[in-house]
Request: fold
Amino acid sequence: MSFDTVEHNRRRQNFEGVSSVWLFGYGSLIYKVDFPYLEKRPATITGWERRFWQGSHDHRGTPESPGRVVTLIESPRASCMGMAYRVPPDVFEHLDVREKNGYLRFATPMTFADGTVEEGLVYIATTDNAAFLGPAPAADIALQIARSAGPSGPNRDYLLNLAAALRALGDQDPHVFEIEKHLG
Ligand code: SIN
Reply:
């Protein structure tokens, strides 16, 4: 999978005749909402866990010195909390560009706090994408984050904003909070 997923994503879902789509956000989409939405609700998806395993060449790092951002890794017993937005489908024209560094749109069920379930979409950077970095010790991930910056700003802000947003949601994410602790 190439570095730029815009064209891949345009071919993935057909929004013809669709007036709104649920989008599940678990990373920057929780705290950086630069798109219009009709409704937003905390939600959880199951079978996935959030990991700082994706390289960022275009937002929080550069191609020569990538930062680290989150993706979702399949894990049958895990669940991941985030924010769901009901968006008009044309929002994906903007989001496909924002998420172009390796993320593809996948269909997923998402569960809201009241137990209701909706089908929607989530951007996931799969392990075969060209910017994928994979696992590393929390201290090493924190060091890479501390040293990285890109057009969207310091990588450290991505981590700190995400950790704060997860706390506001009442989420316990040991992976994110451990890296935050190492950042100092
Ligand atoms: C997301 O937030 O749902 C995708 C990953 C990111 O943009 O940080």
